[in-house]
Design brief:
By secondary structure, the protein is of the alpha/beta class. The chain has 18 helices and 21 strands. It starts with a strand and ends with a helix.
Length: 433
């Protein structure tokens, strides 16, 4: 049995999209992975477990095996009859699939939404309010001497981020950990905080106050209080001095900032802090995106509609108002009458009432694996893994576009997301034509 070695393979787990993996394939099995983290090793070595291997259609409250054409016909029939469908997910598939998804949502007059609404949506709203000073991960690797992780824990969520791109990376002008300072701001002492030079533990839900205090300190304003958000003023002024006096600083923010009290206003203030710092030095900011192509889902949706997520196309033109046009809010109001979920598991992650309202109406799932969402679906169509069984374009968390590789063949008769969505779109057009 022949053995093939694939180099520079992109990891399709987190937003780092590490593109240096070495994968050994024997026959059609992955036998070894190098230059990996624990999460990528688990995905690459176990990608064939708990798979959906054939399409299924629910009849008499039971999912039964069906042909691909029957599954496409049932999916197209559900979507064609729907007056206000939601098309959700997209963060774990290719940009090419998302592009077809936008066309399908537009044709149906539905809502095109991705997982941003439950993670970094407030970050996007903040950027739209204030503007963003950012860069690529390569620039951080080469130049950053001050790195701040605010409300994020990359040791667990992005295991190779610090090694490849920030604190411990070896760049052109920064040779490693000794050339950089790391600050962690969080409500508890995380494993990332344990390896930081400075750790600020703050009161829950008071990120905005601390960001405002740091901005004030950068402006050399006087403080009336002895502490802000549980941090002594002397400590705040010390951190502000470090930020002002660095050569190249970066704030990486996570869900601890976007999904705590204040939400997009927290990001407004963080962006305002960075803007103020840029009057004195070079300072940037970047969200720690979770899914490997959630950034791509935002970009593709924005190319085609003008907006990155939560796009309502029911009136024949795009409307964007997160909090009203996002999938969770529509489901909580029980307004949609059908859902198509692609490469996502909202039943496990949505608020209970939103999940209940989703499953009481027709639900279609396109996913490689069995999930609570597929088990609750009326139609399940198995798909190939992007970055393993099919290629495609993906966006790294810093907006750099990468080309994911195919390293193994999918199971027999398993199509790609692009093929499945094209088939559904074609059949919907025929039914509604």
């Amino acid at each position: 049995m022949s053995v093939k070695n694939h180099s520079n393979v992109i990891c399709t787990v987190c937003g780092c999209c590490c593109d240096n993996l070495e994968v050994e394939v024997k026959g059609n099995d992955i036998t070894k992975v190098k230059k990996n983290c624990a999460m990528s090793l688990s995905k690459f070595m176990n990608f064939n477990k708990e798979r959906n291997l054939y399409p299924m259609i629910r009849n008499r409250n039971k999912l039964s095996e069906a042909s691909f054409n029957d599954a496409i016909d049932r999916s197209a029939s559900i979507l064609s009859k729907a007056k206000y469908p939601i098309l959700y997910g997209w963060s774990l598939t290719s940009c090419e699939a998302t592009e077809i998804g936008v066309e399908l949502a537009d044709y149906l007059g539905g809502v095109m939404d991705n997982t941003t609404g439950t993670c970094h949506g407030p970050g996007i709203l903040g950027i739209q309010d204030v503007g963003e000073s950012t860069c690529t991960l390569g620039q951080i690797r080469n130049r950053a001497d001050l790195i701040i992780y605010w409300g994020s824990n990359p040791v667990h969520a992005h295991p190779l981020h610090m090694v490849r791109y920030s604190a411990m990376s070896k760049g052109k002008y920064r040779k490693g950990r000794k050339d950089r300072k790391v600050i962690v701001v969080d409500v508890r002492k995380t494993d990332t905080a344990k390896i930081a030079d400075h750790f600020l533990i703050i009161k829950q839900g008071e990120d905005y106050e601390l960001l405002s205090a740091l901005t004030s300190a950068v402006k050399d304003n006087e403080f009336e209080h002895r502490e802000v958000s549980g941090v002594p003023v002397e400590r705040i002024e010390e951190i502000a001095d470090m930020m002002v006096n660095c050569d190249f600083g970066i704030i990486f923010f996570g869900l601890g900032l976007t999904m705590s009290v204040g939400k997009h206003r927290n990001i407004d203030m963080a962006l305002s802090l960075v803007r103020e710092l840029n009057k004195r030095t070079k300072f940037l900011i970047m969200p720690m995106r979770g899914h490997f192509n959630v950034t791509g889902a935002n970009h593709v949706t924005a190319w085609q509609t003008g907006f990155p997520y939560a796009v309502d196309l029911s009136k024949g033109y795009p409307e964007y108002n997160p909090g009203e046009t996002s999938a969770v809010d529509i489901l909580l109001r029980d307004e949609c009458d059908a859902s198509l979920v692609v490469a996502s598991d909202p039943i496990s992650n949505f608020p209970t009432q939103a999940a209940r309202n989703m499953v009481k109406n027709p639900l279609i799932s396109i996913d490689p694996h069995q999930t609570p969402t597929t088990l609750c679906s009326d139609v399940v169509i198995p798909s190939a893994h992007v970055g393993l069984e099919t290629g495609g374009s993906v966006y790294r968390m810093d907006g750099v576009v990468l080309d994911a590789k195919k390293v193994v063949n999918p199971p027999k008769d398993i199509r790609t997301d692009v093929e499945i969505l094209n088939a559904i779109l074609k059949q919907v057009k025929r039914m509604k034509g």
